[in-house]
Specification:
Structural class: alpha/beta
Number of strands: 18
Distance between the termini: 53 Å
Radius of gyration: 25 Å
Strand order of the largest sheet: 3-4-2-5-6-1-7
Oligomer: single chain
Helix content: 25-40%
Shape: globular
Largest sheet: 7 strands, parallel
Strand content: 15-25%
Length: 460
């Protein structure tokens, strides 16, 4: 069993003194599992949420091998937002307080370049920043990464969500291959695995998941009359009020009809089926992944490859004849240790499908009476985000960092109010919180991105 005391680690005395002064007595779970590998110089990929103590873990790791007498940038920490970068810088400075003259510099968009350029004239030991601004300094040759020993990708899944994949890979290409690479992510989507296999060497894999590997999914089945199926679905959504839900239909036609019926009830629903043009499909997926579309009605074929984190619920409007398809459908909720909800509607004629699912899972179904569903008075179901469509993309040299920098430059919008950024060749989609949607639209439609004006509009 791993000891929880920092004193059991091979740390510099100065760092142990800092840890004691900060009243960090016992290590958190992520620290006790990650620090031995970090201090041993190994690459690490770790699942760790905000507040788990990951900053102290990688902060101690990079500071322990830092050479204070060498005025070269020896560590780079990439963060998705300015706010997180500033928090990380503050924590690293606190840990380094007893090491002497350690220079930590924060480089983020939304701030003037002048002071950053002045600070870079004397190379900082540690740079913490957002990918867009880091890349801008590399392009100007005001930042050199030739001596970086430690690269940290903090909240890597969030950076990928915000469209920073290409920026990150360009930055990594300018860092020595002999570095130690530490990747921290709250979730493990396929993109995280791909980037790890590309930039890390035999990483130690640490997952702070919930107990057991079996997803925690509450499964509910409701018997309905065929004529009441759509109305019951509406009551299900009103009763459970999932922030986001994926509704499965068995046919394209049913998918189209149901999405329209939900929109007619003033619900934010989109359809995903094989008859959509690629542009339409991209737009629907960008809105749903960005949490500006609450309900996605889809067929099994159309939903292949759909990777959306924090999906609150899966609803089977119709049960599939194949119980394996049922398991695959509901497995899209309860990701990364979260609790999930799966609700299935079926008619009397479809009871054999329910019995097949019970046999497949080896457990009786949890049946509820539709009369127990409660629709709150004046029920409204608005998504937390709005997507801004920008008529410019990669071919216009637009990067995620450019959009993030434009939106946060005036400080009217904070980085954590900006969600997923999806870039295509000629268009971009930016998810922002509802309360700053109009401000974001004004900034992107009336301002300039990389010196050029682009058309922008809100997608409702």
């Amino acid at each position: 069993m791993t000891s929880s005391k920092f004193t059991t680690l091979i740390l510099r005395p100065e760092l142990l003194a800092s840890v004691t002064a900060l009243d960090y007595d016992a290590m958190t779970a992520i620290q006790s599992q990650a620090l031995p590998a970090l201090l041993n110089g190994q690459d690490v990929i770790a699942q760790a949420k905000t507040g788990s103590g990951k900053t102290v873990a990688f902060g101690l790791g990079l500071l322990n091998k830092l050479n204070a007498l060498s005025f070269r940038t020896q560590a780079l920490v990439l963060c998705p937002t300015r706010e997180l970068a500033e928090q990380v810088s503050t924590e690293i400075r606190r840990l380094a307080s007893r090491l002497g003259n350690i220079k930590v510099l924060t480089l983020c968009g939304g701030k003037p370049m002048g002071p950053q350029l002045a600070s870079l004239q004397r190379h900082p030991h540690i740079v913490v920043g957002t990918p867009g601004r880091i890349l801008k300094h590399l392009g100007k040759k005001t930042l050199r990464l030739d001596d970086v020993q430690t690269l940290v990708l903090d909240e890597a899944d969030r950076m990928l969500d915000m469209g920073f994949h290409d920026d990150i890979m360009q930055i990594i290409a300018m860092i020595p291959g002999t570095r130690q690479t530490l990747l921290f992510s709250a979730t493990y989507p396929d993109d995280i695995q791909k980037i790890s296999s590309t930039v890390q060497r035999e990483p130690v894999d640490i997952r702070m998941a919930s107990d057991g590997d079996k997803p925690d999914i509450e499964q509910v089945f409701i018997r309905v009359d065929q004529t009441q199926r759509a109305e019951t679905l509406y009551k299900v959504i009103a009763h459970y009020r999932p922030e986001s839900c994926l509704v499965f239909c068995n046919t394209k036609q049913q998918c189209k009809l149901l999405a329209k019926a939900l929109r007619d009830r003033d619900l934010h629903a989109g359809a995903l089926h094989g008859d959509l043009e690629q542009f339409e499909r991209d737009q629907v997926l960008a809105r749903f992944a960005g949490r500006s579309l609450s309900i996605l009605v889809a067929t099994d074929v159309a939903a292949r490859g759909l990777d959306v984190k924090e999906l609150a619920a899966v609803i089977n409007y119709e049960l599939s004849p194949d119980p394996e398809v049922y398991i695959h459908r509901i497995g899209r909720t309860a990701r990364a240790g979260a609790k999930g909800l799966a609700i299935s509607l079926f008619t009397e004629r479809e009871s054999h499908r329910l019995r097949n699912i019970e046999a497949y899972q080896g457990a009786a179904a949890n049946l509820i009476d539709p009369t127990t569903l409660i629709e709150p008075p004046g029920f409204k179901h608005y998504p937390p985000m709005v997507t801004v469509f920008v008529n410019g993309g990669r071919k216009n040299k637009i990067r995620a960092g450019d959009l993030l920098g434009a939106l946060t430059a005036g400080r009217e919008i904070a980085g954590d109010q900006i969600g997923k950024i999806t870039l295509f060749d000629n268009v971009a989609y930016v998810a922002v919180e509802q309360r700053v949607a109009k401000i974001a639209l004004t900034i992107l439609a009336e301002g300039k991105i990389k010196g050029k004006k682009f058309k922008a509009r809100l997608l409702r």
